[in-house]
Amino acid sequence: MKTAVKHVKKEKPLKLKHYVNWFELPAYNFERAVAFYNTIYGIEMETSRINGYAMAYFPATTGIGGAVVCGEGCVPSMTGPLIYLNGGRDLNIVLAKVENAGGRIILPKTLINEAIGYFALIVDTEGNRLALQSKA
C-alpha cells in the first residue's frame, strides 16, 4: 500500500541585511553596568525606568540598537548566545578600557582573518560574556 506524499510549496529564503535588530544586556547593578559601557565607549547612555525595569540605551543612530536592562528575570550569564559588539576602527582602543572599567579580558585580540578582522572575548561588570570585533 502506497502513501500519498504531499508536495509543499517551497518558500523563498528570508534574506535580511542584519539578522539581529536589538539586543539587551542583563545587569544586576544597573549603575555599575551603565558606567562600564559609558567608560569603554566614551559615551553617555540615555536611561529610563519602565514597569520596574531600568534601561540604558546604546546611542546607535543607524543599524542595530540595544540596551543594558536591570529588573526581574534579567540575569547575566557566561553561557548562552554570544553577542559581538562593535570594537570601532581599532579594537585596541576599546579593549584597553575594559579592565579599568571593571571588566575582564578572557581572550585577547585575535585575528579571525584578513577580511573580517579581529575579535576579543570579555566579561562585563555584571558577568556577561561578550565579544568585541573590529577590522583592525
The number of helices is 2
Q: What's the CATH architecture name? A: Roll
How would you spell out the order of helices and strands? Answer: EHEEEEHEEE
Overall SS class: alpha/beta
Mean pLDDT figure: 92
Total beta strands: 8
Distance linking N and C termini:
64 Å
The CATH top-level class label: Alpha Beta
Domain module count:
1
CATH topology: 2,3-Dihydroxybiphenyl 1,2-Dioxygenase, domain 1
Q: Any idea what the shape is?
A: globular
Can you give a write-up of this model?
- The chain has a single domain (22-134), classed as Roll (2,3-Dihydroxybiphenyl 1,2-Dioxygenase, domain 1).
- Helices cover 15% and strands 35% of the residues.
- It contains two helices and eight strands; from the N terminus they run βαββββαβββ.
- It has helices at 30-41, 91-98, and strands at 22-26, 46-50, 53-57, 65-70, 84-86, 104-113, 117-123, 129-134.
- A four-stranded mixed sheet has the order 1-4-3-2. It has a four-stranded mixed sheet with strand order 5-8-7-6, covered by helices on one side.
- β2 (46-50) and β3 (53-57) form a beta hairpin.
- α1 packs antiparallel against α2.
- The model has no long low-confidence stretch (mean pLDDT 92).
Short description:
This protein is of the alpha/beta class. The protein contains 2 helices and 8 strands.
Q: Which short descriptors sum up this protein?
A:
2 helices; alpha/beta; 2,3-Dihydroxybiphenyl 1,2-Dioxygenase, domain 1; four-stranded mixed beta sheet; 8 strands; 136 residues
